[in-house]
């Protein structure tokens, strides 16, 4: 019998790998286990004397297989041990029982080898897989983990939850019940009565570690000692695992709809699909019944969301909206039918009840808050060099009497076929000849009274032949294209014809040089490039003034589109661009990482002849020199980013469009961005966004804590303001504060969204987030993510906790 004191720490460190057979001296009988304890302590002492150090093992396992776990030995240690082999062993003075993932410590510990029951008294501690329980007395079966604990205090590893109770019943290793319990995720201050910022009081709390959920009976949620939510029964999560149940209510105040109260309920129907219903009471409108269904299968995935409000009191009619996104692979089905290649189906359906839906329900869905709602159904097929598509593309246009929109054309149907090859021949180490042929048939339909032109059909074929010669120092790419189109109209054109055709050839030559050199600026080494580029295009004039315009529009004038043949999008207008574009760019690259530190660029187009093809109502372009485009992007350090584009008219000697943007991100949760956008004669706006800890305004702020922002006790300012200079008013505003108390987060955000030129929606969002438990209030997180550039949530996912983090 070992009467000497045996410190518990070295025992676990020195024992054999738990995935292997038990050590020779750590056999099942307790007396022999005690001898094993003495042996391992002696070996550990020798290792320490020799200067050896233990290293972390990659073979440590959170859970052992059942067949291995049943063979793990039990270790008992203490100052005095008495007992008989195969019967009861009593340990007094710093008593400890250790087995795999369970540790029991107490002043006095009795262990019955026959029943496998342990009875502990005085300063009892249990650590099982990182969950810790402390109290005055315990009775527990170490094999079945069935027993009870008197007046325990407990800490849960999975979500850092903690609490106390008058009694804790252990039903098995995964289920327990706390009676007259208190629970919170707030820390416990040693030596003080535990009164956290928030807690749950309940007659009974049942913990289920399999479903990772807690169930409170007769519970109430208190914040700062004030009851704010009570129910005879509610559940709360013990991890991020999905579960069915009530979600936190959402409360908001809208300037138009009034008080908004949402009580969502989540149905975890299966691992691959779920349903959320979210009825919303709007005090001035009525009840909006909403739901969202998500599904995921090996061959398809999708999301269906919809809402219905019977008899909106402000509008006097039923209001509804739905959106469906579905994506599916049809390859297996095609192969079973004897087909070849890959096939797919994509659905994007969006519809609402009326034109005012987008302004009355501005937070219903990101898609449904637009004024142009697309609905598409597209089937695709591909094999080798071939690609085909067949689809229907329709629009719902939500009109505003103060700002009407010309509705786009529905394409019902639109059929396309593409053949593409990049290895036709004439190949060498610099490249090969490439051919692309595209054919399309489309039926265009809309309201002729709104569009001012006839519906019709369009068939077209486009062939492109190109050859790119390229080396590390230069490239040349000649390209030839032929664009042919055939139209058929429901109503005759102005010249009386019901059909029309057009064939437009186009030639272009793109070329560029790349020079590099090692240099340094301000004591910093760089790889500098100089990249001149010349682009020549020749497209002859074809009169297209009598043709309808179904899908063409002007491209945005920038440093990408200035090197293109056609200045229009779509296929109803092919510009007669006959000119040369000259430009040059230079970059500073980090020679070690390749990161782009500085980029400068300038380009201008010169027309050899007037550009006479225009959009309906447009004027021919007679100026030979286009506006000059200048761009600069500088990110000298990861903290600072400066980006600007400048469009300058050399004829009028004034800027046409200017955009200047700067962003400062010195540390995590510190971001400040500002932008100025000017389009002369149209708009001028200032845009400012920020997320910044208030402690960092007048002094240094704390370092970031993994998963917990800058730690507890921090205030953050967050927001974004968009100001229109001509209107002299704020267009959109999102601004507020966040406070991180460690175990809870408070947010208050003011949101103002412009609905029309004369009206706006305003609401106040207030939320309390109890870490690892629930959120109460109106959730502003999505609003902050959508509006504040580089906004960071104050709680980020980190690696799941391990039982080895709490070693006893």
TrEMBL record:
Region feature Disordered, mapped onto this chain: 1-20
Domain LptD C-terminal: 318-682
Single GO BP term: Gram-negative-bacterium-type cell outer membrane assembly
Key words of the record: Cell outer membrane, Membrane, Signal
Superkingdom, natural source: Bacteria
GO cellular component terms attached to this protein's record: cell outer membrane; transporter complex
Localisation: Cell outer membrane
InterPro entries: LipoPS_assembly_LptD, LptD, LptD_2, LptD_C
All residue ranges annotated as the LPS-assembly protein LptD central domain in the record: 221-312
The keyword Signal belongs to this UniProt entry's keyword annotation: yes
Role description: Together with LptE, is involved in the assembly of lipopolysaccharide (LPS) at the surface of the outer membrane.
PANTHER family attached to this UniProt entry: LPS-ASSEMBLY PROTEIN, LPS-ASSEMBLY PROTEIN LPTD
Protein name (record): LPS-assembly protein LptD
Source organism: Hydrogenophaga intermedia
